[in-house]
Amino acid sequence: FGPKLLSSSPDLADRAAAAARAASAMLALVRGASQHVRPASARALGASAARHGKVLLALYPDPEQGYPPKYARDSVPTIAGYADGQTAPSPSAIDFTPGELLGCV
């Protein structure tokens, strides 16, 4: 129904393309982007620090003998507050066993 209808009616295809461009321009304005709309084939390789979060990633080789021993995880400190005086979050309950490795990716 849809593709055949668009291919048989050039006027309808032109109107659909114009509507898609208008929707893209409105979305760019809502997101706070400039009024210039890039073609769909253009790729944005840069990222603004104000609009994107940062991810810290540490890669280690796979352990040959399994997970690290429990004593290596026992000394993780508990944080009661921060240096600037802000208190740390204090959940009413936890959904894991303290000292247990939660996961590995």
From TrEMBL:
Note the Gene3D superfamilies from the entry: NAD(P)-binding Rossmann-like Domain (3.40.50.720)
The protein here is known as: Uncharacterized protein
Report the source organism.
Answer: Alexandrium catenella (Red tide dinoflagellate)
